[in-house]
Amino acid sequence: MSSSSPLPSQSEQPELGKKGRRQQALLQLLEATSYVSVEQIAERFQITTQTARRDIADLAALGRVTRHHGGVALALGIDVVTYRQRRIERVEAKRRIAQEVVALIPDGASVYLDCGTTCEAVADVLVQRSALKVVTCNLRAASLLAERTDFTIAVPGGFVRNADGSVFGEGAADFLRRFRFDLAIISVSGIEMDGRMADDDHQEVALARTAIALSRTVLLAVDSFKFGRSGLVELGNLRDVSLLVTEAAPPAELIPVIADGKVRVQVCR
């Protein structure tokens, strides 16, 4: 997993100067919002749009941010090599989870399908259902599901993340808000023992949070390797989840948190 280096502390860089302090503040803003337009930067820091673009260029050259048309986002939290490795790891567990998840989805349901290798495995099996309405930012999943002519598939516009073929953009969350879902199928990089869920990309997390808020049922599909692990960006808590599907029982430390959140757990047969 590639990630940007931590923000410099005052002791490490005591003489930042006005420009340095502004760029550091911009990075902190992006950590909270995932994407900021050039106009928003100019207004927030009371600078010209030309200065805002120069700040973006400086941070992009350092690998801290990714430039997009009209704005900027934090540098993506996953690289191609890492994602390909994830695709071949614990394949059998992900297939079992996918079969279990799809068995829970009624024909005709409206579904949000998250990014990630587990959700790609779900897409592979989801073609067994009929007349689904699916919204996903995962182009690989959309391509698989498009083989079913009775499915309705919606994908937000934006920029394609090379690592996994997912689409993110300034208007992706607004696009999602047009819908209401019977079910959101999400996956995460880790579930800490206090129930916090985290993933590795700010934009992916922002979409997952939006989908959770728009869904009647939230299904978390993760293999047992994710228990006790974390990620770069906090997504939420197990309390936000209706049903957890995994291939092995959660560790004893996590059971009280699951019970407190009234989360149903389904372990693959």
From TrEMBL:
Keyword terms, alphabetized:
DNA-binding, Repressor, Transcription, Transcription regulation
Q: Which InterPro entries match?
A: Carb_Metab_HTH_regulators, DeoR-like_C, DeoR_HTH, NagB/RpiA_transferase-like, Tscrpt_reg_HTH_DeoR_CS, WH-like_DNA-bd_sf, WH_DNA-bd_sf
Signal peptide feature range: none
Q: HTH deoR-type domain location, by residue? A: 19-74
SMART domains for this protein: DeoRC (SM01134), HTH_DEOR (SM00420)
Question: Which sequence ranges are marked TM in the entry?
Answer: none
MF terms per GO, please? DNA binding; DNA-binding transcription factor activity
Among the Pfam families in the record, one is DeoRC
Please identify the protein, giving its name as recorded: DeoR family glycerol-3-phosphate regulon repressor
